[in-house]
Amino acid sequence: MKKQLAIAALSTILSTQAIAHVIEIDKNTELVPIPAYNLPYGPANGENALRAAQAFLASFDDETKEHFVFDLKDSVRREWSNLPAGIVDRSGLSVGEMNPEQRARLFEFLSSSLSQEGYQHVMNIMAAEAFLSQDRRAERLKWAPENYWISFYGSPSADAPWGWQYGGHHLGLNMAVENNRVESMSPSFIGTEPAVFTYKGVDYESVVNMHRASYAVFAALTPEQQKKADATRGGKDVATGPGEDGYIPEQIGLAASEMNDAQRDLLITAIEQWVLVQPKENADIRMQEIISEMDQLTFAWHGTDEVNSRCYLRIQSPSLIIELHSSGRNVGKTAASMGHYHTIYRNPQNEYGGVEPDKSFW
Questions:
Q1: Cβ-count burial 276-313 (b if 16+ within 10 Å, e if not)
Q2: I need a surface site. Which of 132, 170, 182, 280 has the fewest CB within 10 A?
Q3: Whole domain around residue 157: which residue ranges?
Q4: Domain identity same for 122 and 93
């Protein structure tokens, strides 16, 4: 049912004037490029993310904070989406609703909460959205870098669990912090349209490194292994995206236990493209967990290394689901032949820091 709803929403892109979150946008503000990666409190980790969160929240009055600081178990935490703001309404506070000081503190918080690689994904995705804002469909679909939202779950604290969510079109980061340490970044959606582009004289490549690292694994396999790794059974999109919490797809592809050491090393490098989005304090632990399950892990791929071509990836073990999908088509006419990706990272054993909602969204 969830998948049918998502497909139905996508099918209305070109025909429906859906009502999205209504905000007042400061059109005179230049948001892209967003500020460079900046660590005013020290290395990115749970402790410094807390300090940055407190500074950010201190810039708002209590009435405004009621719109984007929710109870830890609020079911709205699971209502995130990768669809444009013109199709899916969002909870939280948008970048467009913040003043310049608040925006600066937001990006300091994101820097303090993500690795440099993770923050670069945010920079690239928002730049892609700025690129799409020039498209003739942009006004209807609300393609604009102002349309990204921040939400907090629980009160940021050193001695109580809390989480945060930042996302919009092609982005959904869900981070959980407990005991003043980053504990989980599941689920997190990273996508883009376009993928390789130039905006205001700056060249961008978004998600392409994920594609290339995944294809490198497939290219290193023997012909017989490639047959086993074939992912033609992959669907029309990622299977475990928004609205699919709790869904565990069938494992497909080649078992990592059948790979040699060099092939496994390439597989680990591919997995790191997603895991290293989060700060090192949890990324290192998470990689060790994944490596410990290597004999239960499978790799499946379909496609080539061409950016704007149809491809699908699934890497899966008991505590890991990574998917990448490219349809080889673009929604924005201005982005034609420039790439369009959806990817998802999940740890089914630790979604949203293990916090169960008070009630199911669905």
A1: bbbbebbbeebeebbeeeeeebbbbbbbeeebbeebbb
A2: 280
A3: 14-205
A4: yes
